Amino acid sequence: MRWQHVPVLMLLLALLVVPGTAQGTKYLYGSPDLSATISGTNEFAPGAETQLAVIISNSGLNTHKIVGSTLITPDDQPNTAKLVSVALKSTDTPFTIKTDPQFLSDIMGGASGTATFDVKVADSAEPGTYVLPLEVTYTYLLDAEEYGSDVLRYNYQKTTKTLPLTVRVTPDLRVEVLDVRSESLNVGTEGYVYLTLKNIGHDTANKAIAKVTRSGASPLIPTDGSAYVGTFEPGETVDVKFKVSVADTAEPQSYPLDVAVTYEDYEGKTVTSRSATIGLPVGGKIAFEVVSPTSVLYLGQKSILEVVYRNTGAATVYNAQARISAVNPFTSSDDTAFLGDLAPGETATARFEMNVDGDGTEKEYGIDSEIRYRDDLDNSKISDTMKVRVALERRQDTIFTNPAFLVVLAAVIIGAGYYIFVYRKKQR
After folding, report:
1. Which of 13, 131, 220, 394 is most buried, judging by how many CB atoms fall within 10 Å of its CB?
2. Which CATH number fits domain 288-393: 2.60.40.10, 3.90.230.10, 1.10.8.80, 2.170.130.10?
3. Nearest alpha carbon to residue 389 among 368, 405, 409, 360
4. Which CATH architecture has domain 21-169?
5. pLDDT tens sequence for the chain (428 residues)
């Protein structure tokens, strides 16, 4: 036998002599070591509503391990945090937690779990750093006692720890509307909106621009919705002016309009404040009506048509002009009449020269008419179409309307006048 074969032979003999056994493992020392961090930013502005994602990490280690054939391996390791639940608190902070405690199940050593909480920052929150306590409750394996070769008793320990989460409230600009005034704001027109704004936040706004924007489907639509403010200090007030149009479909009532300020914040970033919504009263639509009775015109003759218009709207109109649309059997070489300025409730009379075709039908007609005017902002507007009622009749000829009779009558009058003149001259 060669000597190099001896070790192999001894190993084979050992395997034959020692029966197969299972190796058990037991950890003597170890426990969970939990910490919490915020995923994403921990900076929030006053009034913000956000979802705060918190990562709970377990860095606990098992430091002593025993391996033996007579040991029973436990199902759990001492550094595993079992049945983990987390609750975010807001004691003595301007934060409101809207989410109940959450269950995360088990977190093994070297692993982590995430809990998400809905958080609201108070509008009045002062800028600064705050600590939100995160209460973490879990159970871990304290030790495992063996009874004989097949019984293992687990001893678990329940623990609650409070982990600090640092959050920061940033300074911001918040807009408060102290005063609202409107001018010439009527349905279908443009008007002005005057606002007094106050910075009730804690940030000095640089290059601030006040803006008004449409609120949802409101009929108030800004046509000149920006006003430069410049530096806007905390507690400072400014007066701004905007131009707003009102849709034709609106009704005379109050409608919303949103107000915000775009500015450079304390970090030099361009941001926009949260919007404040105001209500603006809108006056009725500018309207007119024909208040004169039905006019009578005669077939085959030229006549003067007089029409009386009334301003039935809620605002004064300026440089109003009435216009008619003459159609067969009417014609006109003068279809426009100047009415001037009309305050609400005032009337004005327009006179149009009308020719009536002799072949027309004797009946009542409706002639279209409209009024062009200027509003308070000097915008040119045209009213809705109105109907001017005209009845056509045929004039009955009499002796007094016969042209021949009128010529003879004129000659008689002239002759009589001449005779009287000569007679009186002779008497002198």
Report:
1. 220
2. 2.60.40.10
3. 368
4. Sandwich (2.60)
5. 455 554 444 544 444 444 444 566 666 667 899 999 999 999 999 989 999 999 999 999 887 666 755 566 666 788 899 999 999 999 889 999 999 999 999 999 999 999 999 999 998 899 999 999 999 999 998 877 777 666 777 788 999 999 999 999 999 999 999 999 999 899 989 999 999 999 999 999 999 999 999 999 999 999 999 999 999 999 999 999 999 999 989 999 999 999 999 999 999 999 999 999 999 999 998 999 999 999 999 999 999 999 999 999 989 999 999 999 999 999 998 899 999 999 999 999 999 999 999 888 999 999 999 999 999 888 899 999 999 999 999 876 555 555 555 667 777 787 777 667 666 666 66
Closest CA to 320 of 336, 342, 305, 335: 342
C-alpha count within 13 angstroms, C-beta hemisphere, residue 60: 22
Distance CA 363, CA 385 (A): 21
Both structure tokens of 168? 């920061």
